[in-house]
Design brief:
Pathway: Amino-acid biosynthesis; L-arginine biosynthesis; L-arginine from L-ornithine and carbamoyl phosphate: step 1/3. This protein is an alpha/beta fold. It contains 11 helices and 9 strands. The protein folds into 2 domains: about 15-130 and about 285-300, 3-Layer(aba) Sandwich (Rossmann fold); about 135-285, Rossmann fold, CATH 3.40.50. It has a 5-stranded parallel beta sheet with strand order 7-6-5-8-9. Strands 2-1-3-4 form a 4-stranded parallel beta sheet, with helices on both faces. Bound molecules: phosphoric acid mono(formamide)ester and norvaline.
């Protein structure tokens, strides 16, 4: 059987995604109940990080440990990856020794190339273009708080970045309507806008975009790698700050999400994370459970499920 990878949400069918996030909720309950479930004894996860991380590193490493396996943190500073060993060679060698690999890097093409030469599943743990693992946790969190997201309205506020592109793919896979309110010049990738035009639209006025929304989401104004643009971006994005009063214009059942880390006083007001409509802490914790479900799915032929 050919190896399955998870480079974007489009690598899994809508049915597989739905099953996966339900399994994530089950794993969350098992973990909270103190149940020991170790299907990955003797298995190893390779974790390649070319960008910083708190949540992604801790959730993958802890998840693998809870499953009875082992995780290795690989930084370009300490491996030959940082000294120019070709991706093709690194992929062949690393995948000959570990069972599954996650990669956080800059160019999306790099994870695609790694996957092409890998004999084990590759997980995209964030590139400049997509962050699909975050969306698993986000969808799980929505289901846990509100049930199905099908036919709901989701509003993205801010930069048309990797998280926004992932929400566009999620709109297609989970069947919701996505409205994007982004400043001129920071709109989402036009090819993706065309591809997902049946479920994604741009909205001029950010306050209009919030109207009737069931979920409002934002992210940092300058992503990793864009630090030098921080000041220019702060000026352009100032009207796009998400506040409790913006949430008041939405559906009464609206939720607020942010992948974190958040910048209070920039993309969110100082009080937003304390608002009862914010579910960012559950969202962050669900990275652990969603990625455990993902690893279990990708290695299902090698393990015994319980
Ligand atoms: N949301 C997220 O991916 O966080 P980290 O950058 O801390 O991993
Ligand atoms: N868009 C952000 C997400 C961080 C989790 C970045 O790429 O830096």
């Amino acid at each position: 059987m050919s190896v399955r990878h998870f480079l974007t949400l489009l690598d899994l069918s809508p049915t597989e995604l739905e099953t996966l996030i339900r399994r994530a909720s089950e794993l969350r309950k098992m973990q909270h109940a103190g149940e020991v479930y170790q299907p990955f004894v003797g298995r190893t996860l390779g974790m390649i990080f070319e960008k910083s991380s708190t949540r992604t590193r801790i959730s993958f490493e802890t998840g693998m440990g809870q499953f009875g396996g082992h995780a290795i943190f690989l930084s370009p500073k300490d491996t030959q990856l940082g000294r120019g060993e070709p991706i093709e060679d690194s992929a062949r060698v690393i995948s000959s020794m570990v069972d599954i690999i996650m990669i956080r890097t800059f160019e999306h093409e790099k994870v695609e190339k790694f996957a092409e030469y890998s004999s084990v599943p590759i997980i995209n743990a964030l590139t400049d273009d997509f962050h699909p693992c975050q969306l698993l946790a986000d969808m799980q969190t929505y289901y846990e708080h509100r049930g199905s997201i099908k036919n709901k309205i989701v509003t993205w506020v801010g930069d048309g970045n990797n998280m926004c592109s992932s929400f566009m793919a999620a709109a297609n896979q989970f069947g919701f309507e996505l409205r994007v309110a982004a400043p001129y010049g920071f709109e989402p990738n036009p090819d993706l806008m065309e591809k997902f035009k049946h479920c994604v639209s741009l909205v001029e006025d950010v306050q209009d975009a919030a109207k009737d929304a069931h979920l409002i989401v934002t992210d940092v104004w300058a992503s990793m790698g864009q630090e030098s643009e921080q000041n220019t971006r702060a000026r352009r994005f100032a009207p796009y700050q998400v506040t409790p009063s913006m949430l008041d214009k939405a559906d009464p059942e609206v939720l607020f999400m942010h992948c974190l880390p958040a910048h209070r006083g920039e993309e969110i007001s100082h009080d937003l994370l304390d608002d009862p409509r914010s579910v960012v802490w559950d969202e962050a914790e669900n990275r652990l459970h969603a990625q455990k479900a993902l690893m279990e799915f990708l290695l299902q032929d090698k393990i015994k499920l319980s």
